[in-house]
Amino acid sequence: MLSAVAQEPTEGILTYSMPILYRLHESYEEEKTEDNRMKTSEKAKGGVRIVEMTDQDAETMPLCGHKDPSQGAYQHKFQWLQKRMTEGLKVKMLHTPEDGLAGYIEYVPGQRAWRAVNAKGYMFIHCIYMQKVYKGRGFGTLLIEECAKDARKAGLNGVAVVTRQGTWMVGKELFLKNGFEEVETAPPDFSLLVRKFTTSAPAPSFKGRWDQKRKEFGKGLTIITSGQCPQNLKMVSDITEIAQDRYGIEPRIVEYTSYRQAQNAPWPFAVSGVLYDGKLVADHPIGGTRFQNIMEKELGIKAVKRR
User: Fold this and answer.
1) What is the pLDDT of residues 199-226, one digit of tens each?
2) What region does 209 belong to: left with phi over 0, alpha with psi -120 to 50, or beta?
3) Which of 13, 109, 156, 246 could form a disulfide with 151 if both were Cys (CB 3.0 to 4.6 A apart)?
4) Domains, the chain, ordered by start
């Protein structure tokens, strides 16, 4: 496990032979705390409020489901966020009087999106999440409108987002009912959606050339990771251990440390996945059991060692 975050190069990727190691709107009035920590940017009816995370908020709020700041996954994500905030990234969280944190949204100017997209001129949503108990209450719309408000303030053309119908990412239905339209798709079930403020503005697009980019990784097992998803640390650790102990394989670990690298990824999600012999076998974080099923049931690779 790496004990420090590597320095981010302008170009190129970091490779390792060993593992390295947040859906909400009405009108609100802005309030700012004296020390600028956890800025409360709006208040909604019924005590629901949206707060913006600052780069000083470590250990004060959960991150992507991780609540313990002492854990590596929490620190890895927060360190990533701190760097990205200097690039215009925002994280805003919806709080309710009953349960505290109920949902969150993470977005960034499109030219710095950590997805394989061309989205310059748009605000780009990385993640949007709502606890199940709050679904259907319009909180997702509140968060989307919060992002749209910041996009208008920045003079951008609109808001863009990548969704999928499969696991891990939010589906497109939430966005379609909030004025977005689908402009492009990518296999197996990714969609690029946009909500334009100006109809004549050029639409965002996927980077594409997926197969060609995958082949560039060559033979063997490659794990792609980044600090954008805190689930990645466990994925890298689990897969590396199983690959070595069960299959006698030494994986190549590639960590994206800049948005340029992520935008050049061989699939839309970009920040977490697994390739084998140039084939994308996982397009989101997976655990050890899923990895074994892929290796043995889908790829036909037999175990050479038993754990």
Assistant:
1) 999 999 999 999 999 999 999 999 999 9
2) left
3) 156
4) 210-298 (3.40.30.10)
